[in-house]
Structures are given as structure tokens and as C-alpha cells.
Amino acid sequence: MNPKQLYKLLLFVLLIPILSSCFEVIEEISMKNDGTGDVVLTINLSQSKTKVASVMLLDSVQGYKVPSRQKIQQELNEAVVYLKKSEGISNVKSSSDFNNYIATISFSFKDVSNINNITKNILAQQKIKATNTSSYSYNKSTKTFSRKYQAVSTAKTEFNKLKAKDKAVFNGATYTSIYRFESPVTISTNPASNVSKSKKAVMLKSSIMDLINGKINVSNTIQLSK
């Protein structure tokens, strides 16, 4: 999953084009040693909540139609329905805070590979092309967690077609991935990642602009203590 895909999944993409302040996308994966786990996807616009609240009172801004709360909730509910039908996925929940403008979707998986095609398929239903190839795997015998990420070459080209005021929306925006484990981490191959003091979590934080421009790759291989 990548930031642009998460925006659509969590639906606040409908608001992002008309903002001019920071927002944050957070992806959290908690892995158990048996290969099962949980995912929490969050998009947080709370730093822009005053502006968002004002925008929500309008019909359109800068040529973009402003969705109603009902429309945003409807789309979020549809994503939940899709997830509940996905193989290996269970315990699907969502929350939307329209006071602070934070949306979250969470679910459990039987194997981390179950999440590989979820956002791609949701985007396909919306007739939106994915901006990267991203896949996850976990080898139970070696206790190795991997994320492979590769940006689609046309993503930057499409971004450059945006108007300057639309590009500016992404200034200050961040993407954070957090992976948690039952066993201590011995190796995290991505130099931009940080291992927690407990050795049981790995975090990587990047600006959205660096991802769009290909200045950072969020691929990682994480070896756990055997």
C-alpha cells in the first residue's frame, strides 16, 4: 500500500485537493510469530481541522466538489463491506471522527500476503490506477518479514501534471509505517527505518513528496530473533 492508495481507501482523498496544510497517513501492521496479525490504516487531518470544517460548509472549492459527511461515511462503509468479503480477512472495523477529521480502518489477517491485493482491487473498482507495486510476506520458519515496494514510473509524471496549488497540498504531508512483532528484531535492512528500544517494533517515516519523487523506497526486510 502507498499513501495515494490509502487516501482513496480512507476517503479523505475527497478533501485533500482543497487543503493547504499538513496531513498524515499511518500504516500499522502487528505480526504474530504464527503469521497472523492485524492492520490499522489511518489518515489524520487534525492539523487542518479548522480549515476542513470551513471547507465542508461549501459546495465546491477550486473546482473540486466538496463531499458531505454522509458521502464520506458511505464510501468508508463500502470499503468495509469489500474488506469483509476478502479472503483471509476478518474483524473489520472502521471509525470516523468528524470533529478532528481522522478516519481509520482496521482488520485482522490469516497471512500478511492476504493484504497484498486489497487496495489495488478497491482502486480498480473506483477506476483508479495503482501508483506502485507493493507486497508483503512472512516466512514463519525463518521468522523473516518483508515488504517489497516499487513506484510506478508514471506516478511522478502524473503528479507533475497537477497545478502548482494542488501540488502544494502535499508539502508537509507525511507517511509513516509501523511494524510490530512478538519477537525482537535483529536486522532491519532499510537504512531509513528505526528500531524501537524494545526491539519489537520498526518505524519508517517519510514525506509524501519524497515518495512521489522517488527519493525514498519503503522496501524492507526485517529479521526476527529465532
Automatic annotation (TrEMBL):
PROSITE patterns: PROKAR_LIPOPROTEIN. This is Uncharacterized protein. It comes from Pedobacter roseus.
